[in-house]
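Table 4 source record.
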Amino acid sequence: MVKKVNCRRNDNHKKDSSGLFAIIDRFRNKKICVVGDIIADVFIYGKPYRLSREAPVVVIKHEDEVVCPGSAGNTINNLLALGAYVYPLGYIGNDSAGERIMEYFGRFKDIELGRIIRYDGCNHNQDKDPCRRYPHIKTAGNKDRQGYRQKTITS
């Protein structure tokens, strides 16, 4: 037997959001340990330049790159925004993206960075060329640096 569910909005429901704010306020000054991989989410911005001759890939003119905390780093970031004191336990790559994440978290006073382990494993950011770091991306480079010449992917 299938139970019928009423999906209509309940008009008797209060439109008061004080309950939500009360839940959020309970995070303030709580000590919370986050265990996990702290990953750097790298966003590359650019303008489409043309299609690659070798594959159906858009070649972009690289304009900017933003590194944000991802995975457990995103959880840490959200807890800091809620006012919690965070004790992260995890690994961060010992590369430029990992350094940028450490600098980002270093701006906050409510975090203990001593338990984050810098890991020298697979260093994908050995050079500043986005094509070498992200082999699935083709870029035309910065106009002042390399003009619009397509970079080749080297593995």
